[in-house]
Please model this.
Amino acid sequence: MAHWQGLGIKLKPIGMRLPINGVSLQVHTWGNAKNPPILFVHGWLDTGASLQWVSEILQDRYFLIAPDMRGFGKSGPAPSELGYFFFEYVADVFHLINRFSSDEPMHLVGHSLGGAIVSAVAGSFPEKIKSLVNVEGFGFQRIKKRTPSDRIRDWLGGLPPSPFPIYDSLKPFLKNLAKKHPRIPVERLEQWGQLLVNKTAKGFQVSADPKHKVIEPYEFSQDHFNHFWKELRSPALFIVAEKSELVPLYQEVSPYFPESVESAVVPNCGHMVHLEDPVTLARLMGDFYERVS
Model:
């Protein structure tokens, strides 16, 4: 809990360690465990603790659960030296659902990479999902086409990866973070930034395993996610930010959403919706849960 002192956060999460698939995961929770649970899965180079500002609004009615995914934040690294693989995240979320809501379907929320992960889980295990909220997680942006042999060369050629840079102080790290995310209010960005780093003997370093930077040898096509969405059986809300770089991808794939999927646009907001406009996101989620309960 000392990590949170001085952040000016009203409601500090309760933390726990859970062994999941050979990795010790840090799990942040807010609210009363007797309330309906919501499992939130963060995106790349983020932390479950970044749900803090949404949780402050929803914690009176729901029990919010947000793990640091394997190799991110305070969670342990993957035991393999070969990198990280998408379906490992899927397996971790599957076991977290069983841990927190083994007898009843569960609300599932994901942002960015997390939205892709929860889409895979919800499409593969629809009986376990009470509802799905996908925030800016519509698959993977199209990149240069690689042949299978190129992907293997890029994968193994990227090992071992270079470490993340070390900053002498938080100031240059926060300056870079502000350049990437200019719409996040300064105070909140500074608080979030402190949650993203570890303090070492040499300075401050992003709290993530650098093996996350290594490309997977497996290729994912948009057809994978179109299939997962087709298999949805629970109510679903897909949220896109008006100023996000993912708007073109959203427009491309939205025809593949099931007719039952609700959609919402967060105005004047970029990709990091839960940090840029947590009030609107919490309102969209809360209104959605009231409609589907």
User: Anything to note?
Assistant: The chain has one domain: 2-292. The longest helix spans residues 86-100.
